[in-house]
Specification:
The complex is a heterodimer of chains A (109) and B (115). With 109 residues, chain A is mainly β. Chain A contains no helices and 11 strands. In chain A, strands 2, 4, 5, 9, 10 and 11 form a 6-stranded mixed sheet that branches. Classes of the chains: A mainly beta (109), B mainly beta (115). Chain A binds chain B through residues 31-32, 34, 36, 41-46, 49, 87, 89, 91, 94-102, and chain B through 4, 33, 35, 40-45, 48, 55-56, 58, 90, 92, 97-100, 103-109.
Chain lengths: 109, 115
Amino acid sequence: EDQVTQSPEALRLQEGESSSLNCSYTVSGLRGLFWYRQDPGKGPEFLFTLYSAGEEKEKERLKATLTKKESFLHITAPKPEDSATYLCAVLPGFQKLVFGTGTRLLVSP
Amino acid sequence: KAGVTQTPRYLIKTRGQQVTLSCSPISGHRSVSWYQQTPGQGLQFLFEYFSETQRNKGNFPGRFSGRQFSNSRSEMNVSTLELGDSALYLCASSRGTGPINYGYTFGSGTRLTVV
């Protein structure tokens, strides 16, 4: 069964304190791994798609990496506006995304 | 450019009632997918429609149904509501079939509370 596990469930950082979020997955035939950001009361907002092991993508303070079993979302020098829930999802052979339950990130000034 | 519009934003229903949620995708997007989000289970796939045809369905009971119209707008219906159906229902649209080539854009969701 396709499965996605995200850790930690919650993370509190000081502004400027870099860290990483983990997404481990088991899936039959990975077609893509997605990272989304979700603010309270809103739908998920697309961040990255990674397609193969070794791939990396960056956007502002965020960098996503992918191995054959997990993905990391590195946050460098975070700011309070980076506070959100970060969701990881995988796309196996079918068209439906399989989501993890997310990491709630709180960045304090 | 308008995003994905979901209506209503909030709903309170009584057990046993039925409810219809609406989703208008981004103009030009022909694929609409529905997800249920709860604190314990996260986002779970309900179904996907493309050009008025259901292409994929998740593991939900038959009380959950949907359809897509010729203008790509989609509705989902839940009959005989149960307390456990309380959730945020999210709609996502895509230009092609599924997110792999074009990505998904999510709406802000409909918050359904069953009392």
